[in-house]
Design a protein that fits this description.
Chain B: Keywords: Cell membrane, Membrane, Plasmid, Transmembrane, Transmembrane helix, Transport. Chain B: One of its GO terms (cellular component) is plasma membrane. The complex is a heterodimer of chains A (423) and B (296). By secondary structure, chain A is α/β, with parallel strands linked by helices. In chain A, 44% of the residues lie in helices and 16% in strands. In chain A, a hairpin with a 2-residue loop joins strand 4 and strand 5. The longest helix of chain A is centred in the first third of the chain and has 20 residues. Chain B is built from twelve helices and no strands. The longest helix of chain B has 33 residues. Classes of the chains: A alpha/beta (423), B mainly alpha (296).
């Protein structure tokens, strides 16, 4: 017992010493809502590390990616101490620039593995190195307008399959004379719908070993057929990111399907619609089928060129590795934690005023365990660009069946990446 | 009768280092920032840059390009713009230049500035404005169409209309610029030619075709070659207004190159595309000079 006390006293003493000894400035690159979220963890972090100054720079999503690649290509020049990276795009960095980022295991990250779900680590580790720490995730749900659904006589609890969703869309069309659509698809601009539905059905561009193109497999065929069915029934509007927000503000979209991080986007863009919104699980392909998927989600990496690694890692550990840090980001900007202990935080069980006092975080985080693994690989962008076009062509009627469309997509992805098509 | 001129005594040429030393700084910069990248990107086109420094030499990028449907789409889109937008623009610019040159026009300076002004506006800002103007639900263009009793057009989400928006944007931005260059050309034509033609009884229309157009040919050719090279490198408008979409409907060689180079970070393949674009630009410019540039 004495030994224990002595030991813990010693640990306390050494950590205390470490905390005051850390100093200097830590620069963080991030984007939009994510940058604001990181900002909100700084006061808590500074209570423990008063001598470390954290500067979050909001560069915008595209810019962070582009400047990161440029910096790595230039051998680590002009990179920050902490770098935000989307899971889907992460492998481009590890594959092309294996020495650009610090192996976090060397700083003790291997002890944190169990604190996060396995699917979050898939894209962050390569060549036995742990390149980044899991941040938020994007469990997919349907955000919906209670008032519009009610006026059209739709009960969201009864929407269990995509067919139910389609029928609800028709009700909205009839009620509002085609002026209000049940959801918006970025057809021709993005393939997010396909990725969400494919993931739900256990399929993705590539297999989890990143050795084969699996886009023509049955789960993906189901996903694309469903999208076509919804599109042909004319229950969807078309619009890109900005167009979707405009539609929400103008009450022309009765729901939105996205990763849960979209919560903050709706809440901050349409503050006047407070209380009118709610959340329900994404419909399944077949009755009783899985109702979970993941879209997006990010991580934080530590450039090897950082001059202040200890302080940078301390910040990452506080912001991402503690429930306080993660819940601060959830409260402020609706970033969904992937830290398992944060999902048990009392805040998660609270009703949210904007969402009509629904306990949305419980609903959303409840799906986290059902999310099938999917891997972006370093060829994510190639596959995505091809799929955007194939989806648009298929919806336009260029292919006879979803299988035919996806066979073509698989062939194209294979020729762009050099990976074989799965049989 | 032949006379042979006496050849001057040949000056003794000695090698002198000084001139070379003077141009050496320039040569070094030129070699490292111009010549080397050009050579390097050619070498890169024979490597799969995604595999890192150890990638073996191969012609895979070139064979991929030969069968690449996306590249063909980009090429086709670029040529559609080239064939529709460039002649329309030059026609409009010529008309505009003649009008701006007219003595009957008041406040010519103001008009010249007004037509040149689009070029001064930042590309990002003007792209954003075009996106707003052509927004399907809330854009001013569809409002105007509605006012005329016409149905709305889904401008940015349909292939044909999206291409139309790109062409309109390019016309808005570049017509004035070309008009100003042509105006300079017009002002170089001597007034006496027109006076003489009027005395001989030529109508203004005849004067335009027999004097203005032939005299303006070098300037027109200059504008044509510049527009052509500009179109082959076209990037800003399709990237910022339509994001190359919907699908690949407005993807140009420029945006495809960017996508491969900076989104997929596949510099090997991007270099292959770049070299192909450069070759196409050289061939098309040559053909133009041959066709229109006999004595220009």
């Amino acid at each position: 017992m004495k030994k224990m006390i002595l030991l813990s006293a010693l640990t306390l003493l050494t950590t205390a010493a470490a905390q005051t000894s850390l100093s200097g400035t830590v620069t963080v690159w991030s984007w939009d809502v994510a940058a604001k979220a990181l900002q909100s963890t700084i006061p808590g972090f500074n209570k423990q590390y008063p001598n470390v100054k954290v500067e979050v720079v909001d560069l915008g999503n595209q810019n962070v990616y582009d400047r990161g690649l440029a910096g790595c290509a230039a051998g680590g020049a002009d990179l920050p101490d902490v770098y935000s990276i989307e899971n889907n795009e992460a492998e481009v960095f590890w594959a092309r620039f294996p020495d650009c980022f610090t192996d976090l295991n060397t700083l003790g990250a291997d002890k944190l593995v169990k604190n996060f779900p396995a699917f979050k680590w898939t894209e962050l580790t390569a060549n036995n190195k742990r390149y980044a720490m899991p941040w938020d995730s994007g469990p997919v749900v349907i955000f919906y307008r209670r008032d519009l659904y009610q006026q059209a006589g739709i009960n969201p609890a009864a929407i269990r399959t995509w067919d139910d969703f389609l029928a609800a869309g028709k009700k909205l069309n009839t009620k509002f004379g085609n002026k209000v659509k049940i959801a918006t698809i970025a057809n021709g601009q993005d393939d997010e719908w396909f990725r969400m539905l494919a993931n739900q059905n256990g399929c993705f561009y590539f297999n989890n070993a990143a050795t084969q193109v699996t886009i023509a497999q049955p789960g993906c065929v189901t996903a694309l057929s469903t999208i076509k069915k919804l599109n042909d029934a004319q229950v969807l509007a078309t619009g890109d990111w900005g167009g979707q927000i405009t539609g929400i503000k103008a009450s022309k979209a009765a729901s939105a399907i996205y990763g849960a991080w979209y919560e903050g986007t709706i809440r901050t863009n349409a503050p006047d619609q407070k209380g009118k919104w709610g959340v329900y699980l994404m419909p399944a392909s077949k009755a009783g089928g899985p109702r979970a998927a993941n879209l997006g989600g990010s991580a934080l990496a530590l450039p090897a060129s950082s001059k202040n690694k200890a302080a940078a890692f301390a910040f990452m550990q506080y912001a991402l590795g503690t429930a306080q840090g993660q819940v601060a980001m959830l409260k402020g900007e609706g970033l969904v934690p992937s830290l398992l202990s944060a999902t048990k935080d009392p805040y998660v069980a609270q009703g949210q005023a904007y969402w009509g006092n629904q306990k949305v975080w419980q609903t959303i985080l409840g799906t986290l365990g059902d999310v099938p693994q999917a891997r972006g690989t370093q060829y994510f962008q190639d596959a995505r660009q091809i799929m955007i076009v194939v989806q648009a062509d298929y919806l336009k009627g260029k292919y006879k069946t979803a299988q035919e469309a996806l066979n073509d997509a698989a062939k194209k992805i294979s020729s762009a990446t050099g990976l074989a098509v799965a049989k | 009768m032949t006379t042979t001129l006496p050849t001057p005594p040949r000056a003794r040429r000695r090698f002198q280092a000084a001139p070379y030393l003077f141009v050496l700084p320039y040569l070094l910069i030129f070699a490292s920032f111009w010549a080397w990248p050009i050579v390097s990107s050619f070498l890169l086109s024979f490597k799969d840059s995604r595999l890192g420094a150890t990638a073996p030499w191969s012609v895979a990028n070139w064979t991929r390009l030969a069968g690449d449907e996306f590249f063909r789409t980009a090429l086709k889109n670029t040529f559609v713009i080239l064939i529709i937008q460039v002649p329309t623009m030059l026609l409009m610019a010529t008309g505009l230049a003649v009008a701006l040159n007219s003595r009957m026009l008041r406040a010519r300076g103001l008009f010249r500035f007004a037509f040149f002004a689009p070029l001064v506006v930042g590309t990002v800002a003007y792209s954003a404005v075009f996106r707003l103007l052509f927004n399907t639900d809330f854009g001013m263009v569809n409002r105007a169409l509605g006012g005329l009793g016409l149905p709305p057009v889904d401008w940015l989400n349909q292939p044909g209309p999206a291409m139309t928006v790109i062409i309109l944007a390019l016309l808005w931005r570049w017509t004035g610029y070309n008009a100003i260059i042509l105006l300079a050309g017009l002002q170089g034509i001597r007034e006496e030619l027109y006076e003489a033609a009027s005395i001989d009884g030529a109508t203004p229309w005849e004067q335009f075709w027999k004097i203005t157009v032939p005299m303006l040919r070098p300037t027109l050719l200059f504008c044509l070659v510049l527009s052509l090279i500009g179109t082959l490198q076209l990037f800003t408008e399709p990237a910022l207004i339509t994001n190359s979409g919907p699908g690949n409907a407005t993807m140009t060689l420029g945006t495809y190159l960017y996508q491969q180079g900076f989104r997929s970070f596949n510099f090997g393949y991007a270099s292959t595309i770049a070299y192909t674009v450069a070759a196409i630009a050289a061939v098309v410019s040559l053909v133009q000079l041959r066709l229109f540039g006999r004595d220009a």
